[in-house]
Each structure stands twice: as C-alpha cells, then as structure tokens.
Amino acid sequence: MRQRPADTVSAVLLALGLHAVLLLLLVFGLNWTRTNAQPAFGSPVSAELFDPDALSAAQRRALEAPPEPLPEPPEPVPEPLPEPEPVEEETVPRLQPLPAPVPEDAMVEPQPQAQERVPEPDTVEQDAARREAESELAAEREQEERRRQEQIDLTERQRQEEAEQKRRLARQQELEKLRAEREQIRREAALAEQKLKQIAGARARQASDEAAADAAPPPGRPDGDSDLAARYAAALQEVIARNWVRPDNVRLGERCRLYITQLPGGQVMSVEFDPSCPYDAQGRRSVEAAVRKAEPLPYRGFEPVFARRLNLNFTAQDR
User: Fold this and answer.
1) Does the pTM of the predicted model rise above 0.85?
2) pLDDT by residue (tens digit) across 126-184?
3) Can you tell me whether residue 228 is helix, strand or coil?
C-alpha cells in the first residue's frame, strides 16, 4: 500500500508528543522525591505555645530576671571529620533521538478493497526468459555484424568497379586520342600528297599552256592584227584581275585557262574552265565572280578582234 505524506506527518507528531509526556513525568517524579525525603541525622525539634498573660507573678519575675551566666565550657577537642560518603550525582536523562517512522506504524486509512495478490515470480521461467533474451540479443548482434560486413563488401566492390571504370575510360580516351592523331597524320599526309600532285600538275599544265600559247593565235580572229589581239587579251586580264580577290589557296603566278561566251558590247553569257585549270572550286568561283563583276568587258576599239567565245589564260596576281 502506498504511504501518503499526511500519514507520515501524523506519526511524527504523535511520537514527539509521547516523548514530551515521558520527560515531564520524569522531572515531576524527581522533584517529588526531594521534597518528601527525611533528614538522615538528629531528633526532631518540638515546641509548645503558651499565652504570656496566663503566667503567674513568680513566672513573670523569673522571666524578667537576667539570666545567670553559663560556665565556660572546656575547649572542645576537634574530632576527625568523617570521610564524606560518595553522593550519587543526580543525572537528568538525555533526550533520545526520535525513532524513524516506519510504514507499519503509520496511521493509514483502511483500503476499500483487498489488494490483489501479486504472484511470486517463477525463477525457472525467469532464467528461461533471460536465456531467450540473451540468445535474441546475440542473434541481433550477429545479424547486425553480418549486415555491416556486407555493407563493407558492397562499398569495396563499388570502389573497385568505379576504379575499373575509370581505367577503362582512360584507356578508351587514350585510344581515341591515338586514333585522332593517326587520322590527323593521315589527313596531313594526304593533303601534302595532293598538294604535291597539284604542284606537279600545275607545272605540267603551265608548261603545256606556255607551249600552246606560243603556237596558238591570239584571241579573236586568226587573221586579225596580232598587236591589237595582244592588247585585247591584256585588257581582259587587267579588268578581271582588278575585280578579283585571290583566295589563300591560290598561289601567285598560277595560270588557269577559261572560256568566256559574250555578246557584242561585252555582256557575259557564260564562264567555263578548262579541266587543266589548277584552281579548286573556291578559286574558280572567285574568278567567275570577277568576270561577271567586270562586265561589260572591253569592247570599244577592239571590234576587229572581238569573238563571241574567248580563250583566255588567267594568271593569279595581287592588285
């Protein structure tokens, strides 16, 4: 049963009151014993009372007469004093500490209902339950250790896979870099070879053009004035070169044979290039653009040597 604080206070107050009553009874008993105690030595003194008016004349004279002096007593010899008897000292009992209240002495209210009986635990079942709990705890620890080891193994595998993937990626990048360098070397070699071929072809065409130019008549009618035809060819070269922007891949002095179809007055109808022309597509487009930009081509003064189809050797020059 649970003890209330009020019950404890009541028990302490009752114990204090009981001790106070016992102390008062003890003090009162000591005082009463001292008052009724008889002297330990001598006889009691008795006295008789009388009325002075009731005395006779002789008794009055005897009382009024001076008393006779008493003889001097001999000097008393001092007797040895007896040793004092030990007197027991009266001691007052000390206050004793109050006993600690116990739940059994506390004033408690009766329970309205009887407390249920708590069954005593079975030690065998407790041991079995304890062993079962210990085994479960050991199994949980073992499972936790297994999970931790699995997590460590998984982390290690992931780290190894990431390292292997990085190595494969590095090897792949290195191979791609080598392929790119090899392709670049191949392209550079092919370009150099093409340039060599172009140079060789240009030189061969230049030589053949120079030989054909020396043997062929000037543009215009074959039977015309050769000096006027030469001036007409120079004027065409001059006006086309003035409107031409040389590309970087066309070398200075490189010649290209082209055929120009025109109308009287110098209106250009078409521009065609001989297959032997060493200019690439960009160079040919630049020459055609210069021809069309230069129209109308020179005509006045060159009527005797005018031809609808011109055979012109254009030479790359910077203006």
Assistant:
1) no
2) 788 888 888 889 999 999 999 999 999 999 989 999 999 999 999 989 999 988 998 88
3) helix
Q: Which two tokens stand for residue 296?
A: 């109308």
Q: Residue for token digits 């035809």? A: 229
- Cβ atoms of residues 281 and 200 within 8 Å: no
- DSSP assignment, residue 134? H
CB atoms within 10 A of CB 284: 18
Collapsing DSSP to helix, strand or coil, 160 comes out as helix
Is residue 38 classed as helix, strand or coil in its secondary structure?
A: coil
Q: Give the burial class of 85: count Cβ atoms within 10 A of its Cβ; 0-12 exposed, 13-18 middle, 19 or more buried.
A: exposed
Q: Is 255 helix (H, G, I), strand (E, B) or coil?
A: strand
Determine whether domain 217-315 maps to CATH 3.30.1150.10.
Answer: yes
Question: What does the alpha-carbon distance between residue 299 and residue 218 come to, in Å, rounded to a whole number?
Answer: 16
Return the closest-CA partner of residue 273 out of 288, 258, 289. 258
* Strand, helix or coil for residue 260: strand
How far apart are the C-alpha atoms of 277 and 257, rounded to whole Å? 6
- Look at residue 280 and tell me whether its pLDDT is greater than 70: yes
Distance separating alpha carbons of residues 174 and 162, to the nearest angstrom = 18
Of 250, 233, 312, whose CA–CA distance to 284 is shortest? 250
Distance separating alpha carbons of residues 200 and 250, to the nearest angstrom:
15
Q: Give the start-to-end residue ranges of the domains of the chain.
A: 124-216, 217-315
Helix (H, G, I), strand (E, B) or coil at 70: coil
CB 115 within 8 A of CB 10: no
Do the bridges between strand 309-315 and strand 268-273 make them parallel or antiparallel, or are there none, so unpaired? unpaired
